[in-house]
Amino acid sequence: MKHLIDPMDLSRQETDEIITLAQDIIAHRERYQGSMSHRKLATLFYEPSTRTRLSFTSAMMELGGNVLGFSDAKSTSVSKGETVQDTVRVVGCFSEIIAMRHHIEGAQLYATEVSKVPIINAGDGSHSHPTQTLTDLLTIKRELGHIEGITIGFCGDLRFGRTVHSLIKALTRYSDIKIVLIAPDELKLPDYIKHDICDKCGMSYREVATMEEVMPELDILYMTRVQKERFLDEDEFDRVKDCFVLDTAKMALAKEKMAVLHPLPRVNEILTEVDNDPRAAYFRQVENGKFVREALMVKLLEWENDPAHGMPSRGEPILDSSLRCPNSKCICNCEHAPGKFRRTDDGILRCWYCDHKVK
Ligand code: ASP
After folding, report:
1. pLDDT digits (tens, 9 = 90+) for 97-107
2. What pLDDT, on a 0 to 100 scale, did the predictor assign at position 78?
3. Does the structure show a pLDDT above 90 at 288?
4. What residues make up the domain containing 260?
5. One domain, residues 69 and 140
6. Most-buried pick from 30, 108, 246, 319 (CB within 10 A)?
7. In this structure, is residue 358 part of a structural domain?
8. Residues 199 and 281 in one domain
9. CA-to-CA distance for 223 and 33, rounded, in angstroms?
């Protein structure tokens, strides 16, 4: 069975197939209406969402299918103490596919261990957000005509911004990508992305201190919100909350064909004066998200029983009950998930579910 928990669960070929199908759906919407009739999507959202949940709902409705689920776990048996695995076992009796968002990192990966229907990770804490990645890839393709060879600047909260982590991972599948990281010290990209992902794949990245110094070379500027809800220390948030702001003066330094992406919601990191610039692609990006989620659901259900489209191996887990993941927001520390780890090429032991360094 094919789930989508991490962008690397899709091969480059599968990713291309989804993006191509999304483009075909955009061009011939009428052909796909009804293609999911009698199919049911369950949206299990344990954390707030506007675009992701509604775009999944709208996508399923456009395909003629039905949607059930919750957007507030407090109104469900979760408030009685039901575990993620039990909820997924139950919901799998009522639906053919599940999209789940959770504030606990690794919750969806843990859920796949018992699920009998495909699970789509719609965001797990500050870890991953693979359907936003598909949205971003489709948007880059539509805005620039290609993904290979681009220079992309990630700006803002690269530490807690799960969309950044997932997109960087996916970009390792494309050739000649140059990454520029623009973030204050407190919000720098996690080490596991720099070392396990970029260094291992030979993807070039550099860190800069200002937006101005890189604007002229960027093909894509990927802005992000500082993720207030992930900070444990409010003073730290106050220190960095206004770190980078995109305005028309900075846009004037950029290429004529650059595109500005943002997973949204924005707070104050892009001034509204930028919205009318033709390079501001963030609202077009939202619409792309609906089409790519249509394509994803069609493909996951098509691949469900096809052995050629299983889950890629995550390697052999190391089970050690004497070790704990240090991340208090990991499924290991929130439910009864076992202590499960993987060793990276440079000898570091990382949590199986959330990638945090254990030792
Ligand atoms: N909507 C995106 C997410 O769910 C970005 C954000 O919340 O800032 O990760």
Report:
1. 999 999 999 99
2. 85
3. yes
4. 132-285
5. no
6. 108
7. no
8. yes
9. 34
**Same structural domain, 145 and 56:** no
Residue of 162, 268, 282, 286 to mutate, ligand 1, most atoms within 8 A of C-beta: 162
pLDDT tens digit string along 238-272? 989 988 999 999 999 999 999 999 999 999 999 99
Ligand 1 pocket mutation pick from 128, 132, 157 by most atoms within 8 angstroms of CB: 132
Residue 279 pLDDT level (bands cut at 50, 70, 90): very high
CB environment 243-260: b (16+ within 10 A), e (fewer)? bbebeeebbeebeeebbb
Range list of β-strands (E), 115-211: 119-124, 151-155, 178-182, 204-208
Are 37 and 85 in a shared domain? yes
Tally of structural domains, the chain: 3
The answer to the question of residue 292 being in a domain is: yes
Amino acid at 35: S
CATH of the domain at 149: 3.40.50.1370
Write the residue with the smallest CA distance to atom 8 of ligand 1. Answer: 225
99 three-class SS: strand
pLDDT at 338 (0 to 100) = 85
Q: How far is the centre of ligand 1, averaged over its atoms, from the C-alpha of 281 (Å)?
A: 16
Whether the CB of 190 sits within 6 Å of ligand 1 = no
- Whether 263 is in the pocket of ligand 1, judged by its Cβ within 6 Å, is yes
